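Quick one, tokens below. Sequence please?
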């Protein structure tokens, strides 16, 4: 019975300590301290600090874990526990561009699984892997809260809506060729590391670039405008049952 409790996920929970390479320097340490100083309780900064580590090292590196622990005055085990809990923190180097395909519920019904298989074949890698040239990493994503645009793909956490196999091929081809790519509801795609720096709390000034909400998200607002519906005032009393029936 020695194999009774054998894990089917041998890589889960592990940071690659065999790879000790790092680009973290004094500038990074100063920025980690800056992030910690933004919160009444410095430890609250750990999540953005880990994003900053990824923006520099392309993953959660052993040196990044040590740096976060030193700045916050906690143990490396405590930092590792957080870094290995959330899927947005990568334990192996991510690609220059990080592609995610949603396969949850409605996206799956609308073809998400087909898109993922298409991406695997086009890139020659499996989910959770990076192309040999380091250009693209691929991930199966859980719900992106964009069901009205299913199926959805993401590049560096930016949306690509109403995807088809053909549109997925075109997107991947452009990313592989380093051609300009624009999100369906956001900015021009930069790189995953640059996106991670923004998530860390260092804006790139592009938050308002490109569209945000699309027609599907605004359908209810448009109907309300057509019918001249208004939200009740904050201090309004609830309508009586007979009034609601009359309406």
């Amino acid at each position: 019975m020695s194999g009774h409790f054998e894990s089917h996920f041998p890589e889960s929970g592990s940071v690659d300590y065999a790879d000790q390479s790092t680009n973290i320097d004094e500038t990074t340490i100063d920025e980690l301290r800056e992030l910690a100083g933004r919160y009444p309780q410095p430890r609250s900064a750990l999540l953005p600090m880990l994003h900053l580590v990824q923006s520099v090292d392309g993953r959660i590196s052993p040196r990044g874990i040590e740096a976060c622990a030193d700045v916050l005055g906690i143990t490396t085990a405590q930092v590792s526990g957080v870094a290995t809990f959330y899927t947005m923190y990568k334990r192996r180097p991510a690609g220059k561009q990080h592609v995610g395909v949603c396969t949850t519920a409605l996206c799956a019904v609308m073809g998400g699984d087909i898109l993922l298989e298409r991406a695997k074949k086009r890139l020659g890698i499996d989910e959770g892997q990076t192309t040999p040239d380091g250009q693209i990493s691929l991930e199966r994503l859980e719900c992106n809260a964009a069901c009205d645009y299913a199926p959805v793909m993401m590049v560096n956490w930016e949306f690509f809506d109403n995807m088809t196999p053909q549109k997925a091929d075109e997107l991947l081809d452009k990313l592989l060729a380093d051609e300009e790519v624009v999100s369906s509801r956001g900015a021009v795609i930069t790189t995953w590391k640059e996106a991670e720096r923004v998530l860390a709390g260092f804006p790139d000034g592009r938050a308002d670039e490109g569209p945000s909400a699309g027609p599907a998200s605004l359908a209810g607002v448009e109907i309300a405008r057509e019918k001249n519906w208004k939200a009740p005032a904050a201090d309004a009393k609830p309508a009586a049952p007979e009034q609601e029936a009359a309406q």
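The beta strands are 97-102, 136-141, 153-155, 158-160. The radius of gyration is 22 Å.
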